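Inverse folding, one chain.
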């Protein structure tokens, strides 16, 4: 794959409203009007985010933005629940069933909810309830997401994402945390 120092048009990139070049100018990403990022260029270290190390001359959808988890989550109900925000992008008319599992120092919890797709990257709130053991607490936790994209009951695809998140105290109605 050869690069060029002269700006050139990019096929398959209609309705983009933000474009940024990666470090060293070896790859580029654009945010489409639908809210879904696409990237192209060198990819020897996986910098395009498409799960490969194959360089791309045309934009590819960045899978980590098709399904992801917000890095901050709030404690709820005195540590019995954590509110996790999942980001999912799927085609309007389809539905997504989002399941989130959370593990924190031996405490496990899960939650699930279904939503109608909007054709944009959307934030979906999932209440994760503890399943026995100690209560959840402020600190680091491991969150895993499985999002099933469905159309008329048939599963069209499954998106998975896992990451470490920071659990923070719940805000009260005045914007203060419980510790203030």
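Residues assigned per position:
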């Amino acid at each position: 794959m050869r690069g060029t120092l002269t700006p050139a048009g990019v096929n398959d990139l209609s309705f983009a409203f933000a474009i940024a070049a990666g470090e060293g100018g070896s790859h580029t990403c654009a945010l489409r009007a639908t809210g879904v990022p696409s990237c192209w260029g060198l990819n020897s270290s996986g910098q395009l985010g498409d799960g490969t190390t194959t360089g791309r001359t045309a934009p590819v959808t960045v899978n980590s933005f098709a399904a992801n988890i917000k890095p901050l989550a709030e404690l709820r109900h005195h540590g019995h629940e954590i509110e996790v925000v999942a980001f999912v992008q799927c085609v309007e008319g389809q539905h997504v069933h989002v399941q989130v599992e959370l593990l924190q120092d031996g405490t496990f919890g899960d939650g699930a909810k279904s939503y109608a797709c909007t054709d944009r990257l959307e934030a979906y709130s999932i209440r994760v309830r503890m399943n026995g053991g100690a209560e959840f607490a402020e600190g680091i936790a491991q969150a895993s997401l499985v999002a099933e994209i469905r159309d008329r009951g048939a599963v069209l695809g499954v998106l998975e994402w896992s990451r470490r998140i920071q659990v923070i105290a719940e805000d009260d109605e005045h914007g203060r945390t419980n510790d203030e």
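The radius of gyration is 19 Å. The chain has one helix and twelve strands.
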